[in-house]
Amino acid sequence: MRFKKAHFGETTASCRTALERIVESGPKSPGNHEALIRSLEATAPNAPAARAAVDAAIMDWVGRCSNVPLFRFWGIDPANMPPTSMTIAIDAPDRVRERAKEAGNFLVLKLKLGSKWDHAMVSAIRDVTDTLIRGDANEGYLDRETALREIEWLAERNVELVEQPLAADRIDDMIWLKERSPLPLIADEAFMQVRDLPRVAGGYDGINIKLVKCGGTLAAREAIAAARATGLKVMLGCTIESSLGIAAAAHLAPLADYVDLDGNLLIANDPFDGHPVVDGRIALRDAPGLGIP
Ligand SMILES: [Mg+2]
Question: Homologous superfamily of 75-282 in CATH?
């Protein structure tokens, strides 16, 4: 995969520089892995995606040394794995209808919203399936009144929740919207890491935790605990990434209310053999560490 464009403020080049700096400062043994992972923040403070990669490598190392899969190392029961969603991008209704048909094995669809196609896309999906839909507006609604009107329309069409309806910085409008919304509202662009939680808690019902935003599995576990303590729902999400990146999140997924880990299924050149999706849920292999051969 080659990305030149900055995503969450990071580029391939900035990630590489951060990784080189981490390697130079070099963890030499998996010893105290939590202290080791925390030390990455000082070495690469503005590179959460690079830190997430190293965090996953360290935890894979720890799991392999202990000869247990990470979910077992963390005491997580894979029987609690929620279904994962399959993403349908903004597209012409005919294409959306085809994508919904192709995603027949998934129990949840995730639809990108916030364009003039919204109603036509939802109707196209409903032509072929009643499968639960999660909407992701990616900050796409222009104002809170429009957002409320659209969310009320979606609520009548078996839509489960809406992610990031308004721009990330419009927390006052989100507080207004949350008071009126018939569907749960999830912060994605508005939530990067655990220190954002107090700011978003009043305007959302839950947060979308992604390893590349927060910096890895240790930070994600802390964000999950903080969300629970605040009464917020937890979505575990991803970016477009390989199944190695997805695997690190998948081991935590049984702790989430909503799982959105399909980034590896949307690329053609995945170099890894990831955990399979069986009957709409990620089926974690019972193999040491990340479980990726
Ligand atoms: Mg999103």
Answer: Enolase-like C-terminal domain (3.20.20.120)
